[in-house]
Design a protein that fits this description.
The structure holds two protein chains of two kinds. Chain A is an alpha/beta fold. Chain A has a single domain, classed as Methylmalonyl-CoA mutase (TIM Barrel, Alpha-Beta Barrel). Helix content of chain A is 50%, strand content 7%. Chain A contains 23 helices and ten strands. Chain A has helices spanning 3-19, 51-55, 71-74, 88-100, 112-116, 139-145, 164-178, 193-200, 207-224, 236-240, 245-265, 270-273, 287-308, 314-317, 337-351, 371-386, 401-423, 427-432, 435-452, 481-496, 499-514, 520-528, 533-544, and strands at 78-79, 82-83, 106-108, 155-158, 186-189, 228-229, 231-234, 277-283, 321-325, 356-358. Chain A has a five-stranded parallel β-sheet with strand order 1-10-9-8-7. In chain A, strand 9, helix 15 (337-351) and strand 10 form a beta-alpha-beta unit. The N and C termini of chain A lie far apart (49 Å). The model of chain A has no long low-confidence stretch (mean pLDDT 95). Chain B has a single domain (6-129), classed as Rossmann fold (3-Layer(aba) Sandwich). Chain B is globular and about 35 Å long. Chain B has a five-stranded parallel β-sheet, with helices on both faces. Chain B is of the alpha/beta class. In chain B, helix 1 links the parallel strand 1 (6-10) and strand 2. Chain B is built from five helices and five strands, in the order E-H-E-H-E-H-E-H-E-H. Classes of the chains: A alpha/beta, B alpha/beta. Chain A binds chain B through residues 112-113, 115-116, 118, 124-128, 131-132, 196, 200-203, 240-242, 328, 331-333, 365-368, 441, 444-445, 448-449, 451-452, 458, 461-462, 471, 475, 478, 480, 549-553, and chain B through 9, 13-19, 21-23, 25-27, 29, 35, 37-41, 43, 65-67, 69-71, 94, 96-98, 114-116, 118-120.
Chain lengths: 553, 132
């Protein structure tokens, strides 16, 4: 410790003597994740911080300060509202509305049957068609979904995982119909099956074939759809399931490492696919903790990719990410307050250097958002971008004693989890051992208990309650007849298409699944022949089997 | 010694949002009840079969997929058809107020708990509604 710091240490001790005589509101102060924080941070807390080594300049290794040299001065983050409901026709209207209002990218939400690989007329789809997203059964629906939206002009993010390969092929085929070549397509498929086993729980196949599908996508994209983000490695759902910020960070990056290892194992060169990996994080309500999380994520990823996996292409070192504000931080009570929560969360995401952002609508705790609520959410981002001035300066919180100390702390805690995961035999072994699931469930339970005991305050829920509250906001209703309409359309398609061609392509796919070839060209052929999602998945289910989770709590 | 209250916590439908179901299952167990958790993606038929087999007093349905208007009545209907209408059906999730009203007035569900409900409220409700 140098003399200056020694002096500071003495000064701090003196200050603490008088400061400690003052009574605090509480005996322990912690982040929303339960991490204890001190009352004051000073240069002593970042004594070992080496600017060049730990921070660097924006766009330079280790990218703590951001992935691009000019960050938001060059281009603002992409404002991307997640949307989709009812039928392809209805959702197409909503997308056009959003693009008209100044949104700069699309983000498709699918309904549960589509997410789980069932057609709309499957018995398990009953009551679920078009409820939480749009119903897509075949290429025909995908064509309708993007009708009048040129796919060489928009980038599209699709939240689809277990059946990602099928939906992606439908998108590529829709491009073909529009005269857009695959190499012109830009966008993202979520395609992150590991976090499904861990948190979101929308799986179909067991881990091994699922990982094969993912590496097949990596390989196909690198040759034919080079601008596509082949995976969005997601912490969002891990956090929504109740994890802490550190768990979100650590489990997500661990998943990322597992995909890199799978790609390498499949014979790909790391620099062939790593530049197309992208991430997706939550923006929860604890402002500084979130900013530290994003900064730590970039640094950890860059170091691992370069040092452990030997990536040479600097683009492989970049952790680019999308952010969504925390649905689980919103309250059904006094829902207008959610506008304020979302605004703070969005600010954290932007100060943390996100590449794109979805801001939740105030009514999402109650139902799918109305147009009015979506507009306010989008306007929140626009106010942030164009009025507050926060986009003018790159990584403006760097050098804050607190933010830097917290960034270091997040990294250290994540490293502890990486060690534990390694010790247990890796990510797949941890999933099998229920390790992640249990860690998250424990954190969720602690959080709920803290709310119930009022150790943690949630405005409008356990404090500042309006006793006679009546819900006065409008709710989006999904017409129950949509299900019958969708089923009728699907059955008409089945009658009118070339069913011999459908059978041929499905049989070819079956053989490909049984072998070791890349399955993507075969899925594309099925899709082009208007085989339905359910039919394609069923063939794969028969070859690959189904995943089952042991229910625990 | 009084028989412990038996509760089946069930996740019907296709969504995988099990945070609520698992937190509640744990809270009920901590309150001294016997809790059985079905796991995810259960059909109404599977839930009713489990409820009868496990001889539960209460079935708690957690639904966040928007399919509550289809799935809750289906479970209740099947319980009735199987002569198990003494089992109390309750639920929770993202359920709009109008739907809550319709489900309760239609006799499909005894009570619905929406986001923000303290665990204790649910525990107490079950304790006072299950007859000894």
């Amino acid at each position: 410790m140098n003399d200056q710091l020694k002096e500071l240490q003495e000064g701090l001790e003196k200050w603490r003597q008088t400061r400690c005589q003052m009574k605090d509101r509480d005996c322990r102060f912690e982040t929303v994740s339960g991490m204890e924080v001190k009352d004051l941070y000073t240069p002593l807390d970042i004594e070992n911080l080496d600017y060049e080594r730990d921070l660097g300049f924006p766009g330079e290794y280790p990218f703590t300060r951001g992935v691009y040299r000019n960050m938001y001065r060059g281009r603002l983050w992409t404002m991307r509202q997640f949307a989709g409901f009812a039928t392809a026709k209805e959702s197409n209207k909503r997308y056009k509305y959003l693009l008209e209002k100044g949104q700069t990218g699309l983000s498709v939400a699918f309904d549960m049957p589509t997410i789980m690989g069932y057609d709309s007329d499957h018995p398990r789809a009953l009551g679920e068609v078009g409820r939480v997203g749009v119903a897509i059964d075949s290429l025909q629906d995908m064509e309708t979904l993007f009708d009048g939206i040129p796919l060489d002009k928009v980038s599209t993010s699709m939240t689809i995982n277990a059946p990602a390969a099928v939906i992606w092929c439908m998108y590529i085929a829709t491009g073909e119909k529009q005269g857009v070549r695959p190499e012109q397509l830009t966008g993202t498929i979520q395609n992150d099956i590991l976090k499904e086993y861990i948190a979101q729980k929308s799986w179909i196949f067991p881990p091994e074939p699922s990982m094969r599908l993912i590496t097949d996508i990596f390989a196909y994209a690198s040759r034919h759809v080079p601008k596509w983000n082949t995976i969005s490695i997601s912490g969002y759902h891990i956090r929504e399931a109740g994890s802490t910020a550190v768990q979100e960070l650590a489990f997500t990056l661990a998943d990322g490492f597992a995909y890199v290892e799978a790609g390498i194992k499949a014979g790909l060169n790391v620099d062939e696919f790593a530049p197309r990996l992208s991430f997706f994080f939550n923006a929860h309500i604890d402002f500084f903790e979130e900013i530290a999380k994003y900064r730590a994520a970039r640094r950890i990823w860059a170091r691992r990719m370069k040092e452990k996996y030997g990536a040479r292409d600097p683009r492989s070192w970049l952790l680019r990410f999308h952010t969504q504000t925390a649905g689980c931080s919103l309250t059904a009570q006094q829902p207008e307050n959610n506008i304020v929560r979302t605004a703070y969360e969005a600010l954290a995401a932007v100060l943390g250097g996100t590449q794109s952002l979805h801001t939740n609508s105030m009514d999402e705790v109650l139902a799918l958002p109305t147009e009015k609520a979506v507009q306010i959410a989008l306007r929140t981002q626009q106010i942030l971008a164009y009025e507050t001035g926060v986009s003018n300066v790159i990584d403006p919180l760097a050098g804050s004693y607190y933010v830097e100390a917290l960034t270091n702390k997040m990294e250290e805690e994540a490293e502890k989890y990486f060690e534990e995961i390694e010790k247990r035999g890796g990510v797949l072994a941890c999933i099998e051992q229920n390790f992640f699931q249990q860690e998250i469930a424990d954190a969720a339970y602690r959080y709920q208990r803290a709310l119930d005991s009022k150790q943690r305050i949630l405005v409008g829920v356990n404090e500042f309650v309006n006793p006679d509250e009546k819900l006065e906001i409008e709710i989006l209703k999904i017409d129950p007849e949509i299900e019958q309409e969708q089923v009728a359309r699907l059955q008409k398609l089945r009658r009118e298409r070339d069913n011999i061609r459908v059978q041929e392509t499905l049989e070819a796919l079956r053989r490909a699944c049984e072998g070791t070839e890349n399955v993507i060209p075969y899925i594309l052929d099925c899709v082009r022949a208007y085989a339905t999602e359910g039919e394609i998945i069923q063939v794969m289910r028969e070859v690959f089997g189904e995943y089952k989770e042991k229910p625990t709590f | 010694m009084a028989r412990k209250i038996r509760v089946l916590v069930a996740k019907p439908g296709l969504d995988g949002h099990d945070r609520g179901a698992r937190v509640i299952a744990r809270a009920l167990r901590d309150a001294g009840m016997e809790v059985i958790y079905t796991g995810l993606h259960q059909t109404p038929e599977q839930i009713v079969e489990a409820a009868i087999q496990e001889d539960v007093d209460v079935v708690g349905l957690s639904i966040l997929s928007g399919a509550h208007m289809t799935l809750i009545p289906r479970v209740t209907q099947l319980l009735r058809e199987n002569g198990a209408d003494d089992i109390i059906v309750i639920g929770g999730g993202t359920i709009p107020e109008d739907d809550i009203k319709a489900l309760k007035e239609g006799g499909w569900v005894k009570e619905l708990f929406t986001p923000g409900t303290p665990l204790e409220t649910i525990v107490e409700w079950i304790q006072s509604n299950v007859k000894d």
